[in-house]
Amino acid sequence: MDLDSQEQILKLSELHGPSQLMVIIGAPDPEAAEITAETVVQGDPSYAGVLAGAQLGLDVYHVLDESISSEVPPEVWDAQIGVMGDVLEADALVAAVAGMRQPGSDSS
Amino acid sequence: MLEGRYVIALGERDGISGPAIAACAEAAGAKVVFVATECFV
Amino acid sequence: MTEPTGDPVIVAATQVLAHVPGMARHGSKPSRELARDGEVEAKFLGALRTFDEAVAYPPHQAYLGAVHPRALPARPWTDASPGDASRWAPRGEIMPEEEFLGLLASVDQANLLTLGAELADRALAALSEHPLAKHLALGQLERAKGDVEAAAAGTASCAVHLGSGPVQGALRAGDEADQSLTGAVLLENLAAKATATLALLQLLDKEQVDPGSIDYVIGCGEEAVGDRYQRGGGNLAKAVAEAAGLTEASGMDVKDFCAAPVPALVVAASLVKAGVFRRVAVVAGGSLAKLGMKFQGHLRNGLPVLEDVLGGAAALVEADDGASPTLRLDAVGRHRVAAGGSAPQIMETLALEPLDRLGLTTTDVDDFATELHNPEITEPQGSGNVPERNYKTLAALAARRGDIGRDEIAGFVETRGMPGFAPTQGHLASGLCYLPHALERLTTGDATRSMIIAKGSLFLGRMSQLSDGMSIVLERNRGQR
């Protein structure tokens, strides 16, 4: 993950805490989605950024997860996501991120 | 789940972009605190 | 001159590659990662390709125009046998690193490149046999000879290697105190200049174009040449014009991240249509910074370092000649500020809106060329198949509009799309790489229209969250229908 993004996420995590803060990922590839999720849960696996070794344990979802999409007004979803829901392999992406999510991290 | 929560939108140019995630999250009542879009090509 | 009748045309397009495994270490990603870990550096250097492997690599042959991307063999392409793959292609060539170092010296106006004497002699011998030798300033190679160790040890110098071997040259800083003129920055700029010049020289040679007949050169590569007071000063185009002997030309660069080639073509065609200039060349060199960008994924998957070539491209735009493919200036798609930044919104505004304007549908376009990044390079690093996703998005939108049935989506992707084959240097993938193929398909082939769609990630510059993009329709000349 981008090093600048890692710094921003660390700051925001300290500011808002894991129960109030969540991360939504839009990666098109399951492997990339998994690495991004891993970075905000267990730390940067490439040990390149400030999140190396940082176990933030943030709540994380892929944007195509039904628990996200079901809360977005359909007209907004259609304009912003639209056919990408069909183009991307939603099930694999959702599963890749869910696999990194810590049990019980969904606070709502 | 989104209502009232702080959201970090980590988009990718080739999938769903950061601003597109942010627009969805805001419409669902979340407060978007960081938006980024990565590009690997 | 007579007034142009129809829209301007593209009369020629050429593509070149320079195989530069030794320079791959200076790509932005490897330069950071290799410095951190000697073990990674050893693995990287052990995974560089030979020149013969680079020549045989099928996507390279597609880039050179020798094979249409739809005719590429099944993957993995890294396993392909050389077959009849050649360094020389009808519309370009792939140059080995030793010669390319000599080419760098030949276009080094500031005399900042030092080459070892033996290497310089070998490069000179090889370049003297090159079909374009008479157009190259080969005397510069003699001047470049010098003490490589001393040059490499200079402040902000950049060492130059041949493959995985020892230091063979060095590029000194243009100004030791200027971050915009370090040896590493100037190597990027010089490499872009050399590849663009080679592509332009190939075009002049293959099409027998008088260099003095070109009025203007528009650069659309990724480098932003400048100094500390003006980092993106620009006009590498004019430097390329000079190096290629275009004595009557001036030039400028169009900057738009990876999308720049299509705006460059549109500006070129507009200048011609307005009668400002008669002949305008659009050129681009390769992006050294992008070399080895995804090497970690390649090494992890037992692949060689696949981002080891610099691409170059040149195209020539002039008034309607009744034969060459037309640039439809009434079908330019642009990504408006308010168009929205999601992938379907971008595709809608770039691909569908201009077709609507012409009263055409997606099935009136034979070939869509968009972001043709080689998937064998992007997939191992988790970036997926970029062109395939673009085509699926386009096909889904076409189905939604009723241009095709939902059961025709896969067929649409296969027949109107194509596999990615370009090096992962975005501007090359953003349309330039398809121009030689489009020209063939729209003249001797059986296609009527190609659409070139370019996209650029301008949010990377932190001045906006927006993307950008532009598209243009190329059409078989009315005189040929």
Characteristic terms for this protein:
heterotrimer; A: 108 residues; mainly alpha; two-stranded parallel ribbon; 6 helices; 46% helix; globular; B: 41 residues; alpha+beta; two-stranded parallel sheet; 1 helix; 2 strands; 24% helix; elongated
Largest interface, counted by CB within 8 Å of the partner chain's CB: A-B, 39 and 31 residues
Fraction of helical residues of chain B: 10-25%
What is the helix content of chain C? 25-40%
Give the C-level CATH assignment of one domain in chain C. Alpha Beta
Output mean pLDDT of chain C: 96
Overall CATH architecture of one domain in chain C = 3-Layer(aba) Sandwich
Q: In angstroms, what separates the terminal alpha carbons of chain B?
A: 33 Å
Order of helices and strands of chain B: EHE
Strand segment tally of chain C: 14
Structural class of chain B: alpha+beta
Beta-strand percent range of chain B: 35-45%
For the report, how would you describe the main beta sheet of chain B?
Answer: 2 strands, parallel
Structural class of chain C: alpha/beta
Say how many strands of chain B there are. Answer: 2
Low-confidence stretches of chain C: none
**Count of DSSP H/I helices of chain C:** 18
Shape of chain B: elongated
Strand order of the largest sheet of chain B: 1-2
* Beta-strand content bin of chain C: 15-25%
Question: Rg of chain C, please?
Answer: 22 Å
Low-confidence stretches of chain B: none
